[in-house]
Amino acid sequence: MTIPRADIPLPVADPATAAASPAPLAEPPAAPRGIRALGPVGLVLAGGVSVQFGGALAVSLMPRAGALGVVTLRLAVAALVLMVVCRPKLRGHSRADWGTVLVFGATMAAMNGLFYQSVARIPLGPAVTLEVLGPLILSVLASRRAVNLVWAGLALGGVFLLGGDGFGSLDPVGVAYALSAGAMWAAYIVFSARTGRRFPQADGLALAMVVAAVLFLPLGLVESGDKLLDPTTIALGSAVAVLSSVLPYTLELLALRRMPSSTFAVMMSLEPAVASVAGFLVLSQTLSVTEGVAIVLVIAASMGAVRTQVGRGRGRSKGRVENVN
Known about the structure:
The protein is mainly alpha-helical. Helix content is 75%, strand content 0%. It has helices spanning 15-20, 38-65, 67-86, 95-119, 124-131, 133-142, 146-161, 172-198, 203-224, 231-256, 261-267, 271-283, 289-324. The longest helix is centred in the C-terminal third of the chain and has 36 residues, at 289-324. The protein starts with 14 loop residues before the first helix and ends with a helix. Residues 1-38 have low confidence and may be disordered.
């Protein structure tokens, strides 16, 4: 797959403001200016490439371990790696903090399970194309600027073009799974931002990944059983975990601390393009001219969203300088 975010209400009005705030009650920092804007943008792009190539590898692993088995391996290995690397503190957290982690973990488990059920029935590119509708809808709902509606609309047009001749020939069950995964992906964006504010570094992500792994373990055992103990399956599953969970989730969580969730959600429109490239290189799925045009559209939408963010940051900085003078 691609690729992963509810808590006690905080003193912020919408997901865009929430994602930009480093902590409850803290003043949201100004958007990064100039070249510094490449920081969070680079994190998002790197996470997208990693997760889609991990997803392509996961598709090739499904005949060996099953869709639910692959998800189980992915979440379990990711949880182990993150716990060892992050070594999060278990004390000193409020009930609201733990509630956020539990919901975040449940969201990740649901999103991964739904998406892998989708790619077991329909090709990777269309699956991600349908799934990305969730973040796009979030970008429209979260944004307070009219120009972001333009970028979301442009990306949405590219997403539908990337569907090629349409989605009518696809397995309707697979389509339903992909759309449901998209809803979970939108929730993941919100929950990850809130988790990032409540826990230092990637501690909240590590704890949430453990929750997701525990919730999904029974499903994987029922479907795959002792297949999960095969050394080759474990090795491939570990690679999927690193590419599809450890790296992208960490990068995205860090990016959301420095980027409004509405901008982040529009940038997620790049996922179908990256998935198509990964499908071509790993699964030998070719790209049509229409799909190429769609890729250009979603890239243009993402660039527009980033430029809007940079312009907003420059405007804030200029206003502060004028006030000082």
